[in-house]
């Protein structure tokens, strides 16, 4: 083979997050299951197998880098939405976007960009209140809560909205592939 199981595990999970590791450890397809453990594997108090617990400190910087990249992508998206910058939105959004709007309607990338291009959708404030990340090697989910003020087809609106966005790492950086937004009662 030429490569030991430990190297294969490191190569296969170059940038996972702690949450994904915790769900993965005992799965038969988990690359970490390939890592040879001495004796019986036991669980630590955070639920991780002792055979892979040594790996987490080494992965923390990579996870932090990925989260920083995603925070930057999210901020670029927010700024583009506020400026109705269709060119920047176009660069951040994958061609085959699936987006579920607050009414439950499914929007494509062209439909979403069309709302900004025509001026039918305007955002005057997007004040972020919380953000949660679930990060994998090539994909991530980001949940955000924001107080949003804007207008849609001539009607003003404001309120708390929960966004759930799915990002994919492409050769040009993180791209938005799917998402949804729902108004939240607060």
From TrEMBL:
Residue intervals of the DUF4440 domain: 72-176
Top-level taxon of origin: Bacteria
Pfam families recorded: DUF4440
Gene3D superfamilies in the record: 3.10.450.50
Protein name: Nuclear transport factor 2 family protein
Organism this protein belongs to: Rubrivivax rivuli
Lineage, highest ranks first: Bacteria, Pseudomonadati, Pseudomonadota, Betaproteobacteria, Burkholderiales
